[in-house]
Amino acid sequence: MLDIINLDGLETLAEARLPRGTFDYIAGGGGDEWTLRENRAAFARLALLPRMLRGVTPSLATTVLGAPLSFPVLVAPMAMHGLCCDDAELATARAAAAAQTLFVASTLSNRSLEEIAGTVDAPRWFQLYVYRDRGVTRALVERAAAAGYDALCLTVDTPLTGQRDRDKRNAFRPRPGLSFGNFEAESATADLGAPNNESALATYIAHQWDAALTWRDVEWLREISSMPLVLKGILAPADATLAVEHGAAAIVVSNHGGRQLDGAPATITALPAVADAIAGRAEILLDGGVRRGTDVIKALAHGARAVLLGRPILWGLTLAGEAGALAVLEHLRAELRLAMTLLGAESVTSLGRDSLLRVDD
Amino acid sequence: MLDIINLDGLETLAEARLPRGTFDYIAGGGGDEWTLRENRAAFARLALLPRMLRGVTPSLATTVLGAPLSFPVLVAPMAMHGLCCDDAELATARAAAAAQTLFVASTLSNRSLEEIAGTVDAPRWFQLYVYRDRGVTRALVERAAAAGYDALCLTVDTPLTGQRDRDKRNAFRPRPGLSFGNFEAESATADLGAPNNESALATYIAHQWDAALTWRDVEWLREISSMPLVLKGILAPADATLAVEHGAAAIVVSNHGGRQLDGAPATITALPAVADAIAGRAEILLDGGVRRGTDVIKALAHGARAVLLGRPILWGLTLAGEAGALAVLEHLRAELRLAMTLLGAESVTSLGRDSLLRVDD
Amino acid sequence: MLDIINLDGLETLAEARLPRGTFDYIAGGGGDEWTLRENRAAFARLALLPRMLRGVTPSLATTVLGAPLSFPVLVAPMAMHGLCCDDAELATARAAAAAQTLFVASTLSNRSLEEIAGTVDAPRWFQLYVYRDRGVTRALVERAAAAGYDALCLTVDTPLTGQRDRDKRNAFRPRPGLSFGNFEAESATADLGAPNNESALATYIAHQWDAALTWRDVEWLREISSMPLVLKGILAPADATLAVEHGAAAIVVSNHGGRQLDGAPATITALPAVADAIAGRAEILLDGGVRRGTDVIKALAHGARAVLLGRPILWGLTLAGEAGALAVLEHLRAELRLAMTLLGAESVTSLGRDSLLRVDD
Amino acid sequence: MLDIINLDGLETLAEARLPRGTFDYIAGGGGDEWTLRENRAAFARLALLPRMLRGVTPSLATTVLGAPLSFPVLVAPMAMHGLCCDDAELATARAAAAAQTLFVASTLSNRSLEEIAGTVDAPRWFQLYVYRDRGVTRALVERAAAAGYDALCLTVDTPLTGQRDRDKRNAFRPRPGLSFGNFEAESATADLGAPNNESALATYIAHQWDAALTWRDVEWLREISSMPLVLKGILAPADATLAVEHGAAAIVVSNHGGRQLDGAPATITALPAVADAIAGRAEILLDGGVRRGTDVIKALAHGARAVLLGRPILWGLTLAGEAGALAVLEHLRAELRLAMTLLGAESVTSLGRDSLLRVDD
């Protein structure tokens, strides 16, 4: 069992276990990493105004697109959990199920979406990247439906990989033998032989994915699939409105963990205007910089229904495999419960902006 | 005698004298310790606008709930002074009396409330935590009344102990043999055998105290006791109003020294709106981050009648026992008198917001 | 070929290659270097609000005063490229041409303006300092016209050299043998024998240039030359208006890279009000602190048509001569293209303030 | 001759030459030294908006209470120049005269006010502290008038010495043999034998000066002397109004170099509201944190007629005696002239708020 003091501390522990290139690939962000830091800093600029003597025993349970969750924290889609532990996404999916929450499998998982679906019976979403070859894309969508995924989570902020200076410095490529589970072995690794001094993954993405994705592709996805559609990577209120108009069941306010456009606002900064634009017409999730139970509260108080947890899950996997990922989720749940109690808040479903205070520090 | 340059410097001196776990237990705060730091930082963001040529010889005397104080600084309730010196609360109570101010004895004192009351004849309050076993609670209240305590100071911000990462890292437990003076020896220490990697005190509190305290409990306390009631831990103006409506004679604007909900505002930040809500219907005290005479002035100018001093008292006890605690109080008194003179302020009872200036730094 | 991770990193690499005095002369700024730092810091305070699913393949091409540029980044006029590589401005001019952009030759180049014009057939501007001896000035202007320069870029912010503490500390003077290519050898170096403990260049400028330049001199330049006039160094909206009224075809919002008046605002801070004052009546360029593709976007979204890149060009020259300067330009182009794609912006000619977000951090 | 790069750098050089206690006494401030730092930081938060092509040859000359100054920088009154060089105030007074500016002699000078007046024929003011013994005070005033001082500069912000932690830590006392030149040797040094661990000077002041000074004392001074009265230490607009009403010819916006009430605003922060209150009815000077020519401009643009320079003068004295003090003044004059030129400002007498820009950094 992994003994956790707080989630931030896990990063340092994981750094000692992973190859430099792998650690940097996971921990790093785009450009000057302003957005990466700002995701954390913006949470710290929000204060919470606790209420006393309310005698609450806080309820953490909620639903996301109808799926019951024991607490409002999902596992964010992330590529290649095999970088962190041998069981890769199977470990993470089982941890999510054990914590009674939802796992979002990435297109770039090391295990196939069918393996992931088969390892445990629990709610799950499939995160989709759209390939230039629409046949490849359609096949992924059909396989996800067949494997019982409950929703399709389309990442909309990655026409190309962000400016990842660390990966370029490290000429990062995944260790040999680590392949993308959703594709034939040969095609999946062919492109990873990138030129020197470039990120192999960035090269793969530039070659394979469709950099010119549009709202029409969203419509096409809705035509070829009846799965509810979640759009991940919305920051502008106008895009939130378009998402609703194009039938998204939910959106994820996300800047891809600060890994795409550096200079994009922190997600907690972008959330309020997005929530106003959505006006209840779709569910809102948020990821980026969530490390404390109080961060979850701040996101929910600003209009999110739940948050997605990213890097800490991978640090947990690195340090203790499935048990580590589960310990991370349980730690955050414990922090959230305690923070709700100290805030005097009854339920995660009824948090509002009255709990928030902007401090000019 | 302890020679003091300033109160901040005492912390470093005390750190060298105390076991790591004990020092961290006293010095630390909740979560990322944002609120702990913010208590100090928020004072620093307030400037004072001095007036000249007023020829003042400042008067520092005031009263709190009718008790005369030689200056507007009380000794905050804190658990286990025995961590710092053998005479524990007896030393502190005598120091407070020597400084002609008021001592607030904690439920979790190492000496019994009767011993404390007997050591010196001076105004004193009893700080109360409410036990699940209401018989235990009622007994404490009745003993406090019998021992001549002048008020009951109910801590309302601690349904559970905050997220104390330092204590968890240190698996903090008080040194063997140090027991809670208000309870039978066996019951008091029974729960301190916490599992590894947990704070023994947090475990004790979770087991013994009532996490579901409500305003009805406040009413119950007023029924079983005629002592004036002070509610400690109010930050929201709405709770200040409720406090008045439930008969509180005074409130303490407090975030428990940054030890409970991390992200709660600095007390000096929360004070103005609370003072507006109280509108003179109860007395207002403040604790959290007071280290300089100018901090006392800033709190009083914002509507507090007096402040409570916490950690520096324990550093004084650590360094020089009763004489150390007294030296801390006398140092702060000297700083306050000098600052009042330089500000051109006649009396601590007439400080107003006209002395304050917000600087955007 | 120079392998570039990001432009900021080049400064450290170049520092290891150059004599201290030369490095400081290039890297340094005026006074406390507040403006130097602020040029970067002000960019960082602006967030970008990316739009999704727009399917853009961004167009980077633009024109400046009718000259076609492959992307909106010019090479800023800078003195003495010979400090960095033997081919001096010839290398830089060829790099600019290879990148299909515009080179601005400095009055204080080490190669003559004719040599620079002859080295490559490409659009070019001549940057002018006005000498006390108007005959010298007129000769420069006539030579520039004869050599096919497309515009005259008058620097208006340098009646005297700024307070350059680093140069004074280093008693900076260019290495012996490095002469100003636009002047007779003897006159060009005569004044560089400055007294000890003074910057030789500052002394030269104080002796040779006209510190009392006025708008009448602008009119005089328009009389003696039919080349379009660009005024470089405008920060105040009122001066922008005067520039238009005196027939400037373009202005450069510039604080001379933080090298002149310390305390002058960052150029990106000054830009919006200047753009409002210009109101489309002249073209607007900006320099100062541009290091990232996202900085280019922020400048264009605020009303600039293009930016000028300064110091990083000299670091490129230092590290790899012409190829280094070209690599710098190509790196910035690649960053800009990627950032435009991630922002969902179609063309550099249609960026607007709707892409910008002010973050209070 | 002292070769100066900038005035800030002198402090480090002087630190190496002076005993720790002496350096700290001069360099230090009150309490946490927030005001000390803020005096500098507040200047840095103000940007200057330079104008171009104005062809100015700036005029630096001005007058203060009718006395002609070659530039708007006076030498601030400071105690005990003998701590820095043997000629003490004689050196400084000669340096001020050589720079064609005004010297303000302190009550606590090491040389007598008559010696200072006799050393050079130049405008001079006498800074006054009011002693409990009004006979002592009256004698000082009469001697100043007899010695040809042009004005009386009453310090109003020092009823007691500020909280000087450094002096207390160092148990600072001036070196033996250094006496106050304005008093009989025995009386002047009698009180400097302070108890251990206290500042000798603070003790002297507490014993000798009148901590209860009022506006009536100002009236009394006007009755016993016809010298124009300057009140030094005004920060509140209401006190500025009172100063005018009580016949002050000038005020100095000052926080005593951050040495008195810590938490008092920076002088450049306090100046605008004070200038509004004065509304031209008295001359306004400012001291505190002036280190750069641009600082002088910022003060004048906000309504000051001139500034007083303090600590850097003492560093100059320390490093090179009279020549050092003169070099400091000449350096600041050169910076001011260059900054005026770069700002495009014609005269120090016509600077206005249109040159200022508030930057949120």
Structural description of this entry:
The structure is a homotetramer of 361-residue chains. Chain A has 361 residues and is an alpha/beta fold. Chain A contains 14 helices and 12 strands. The first copy, chain A, has an 8-stranded parallel sheet. The longest helix of chain A has 33 residues, at 311-343. Chain A is globular and about 60 Å long. The model of chain A has no long low-confidence stretch (mean pLDDT 95). The A-B interface holds A 3, 5-6, 8, 44, 46-57, 292-294, 298, 335, 338-339, 341-343, 357, 359-361 and B 31-32, 34, 38, 41-42, 45, 156-157, 159-160, 162-163, 165, 168-169, 197, 211-215, 217-218, 231, 233-236, 238-239, 242, 260-266, 269-270, 360.
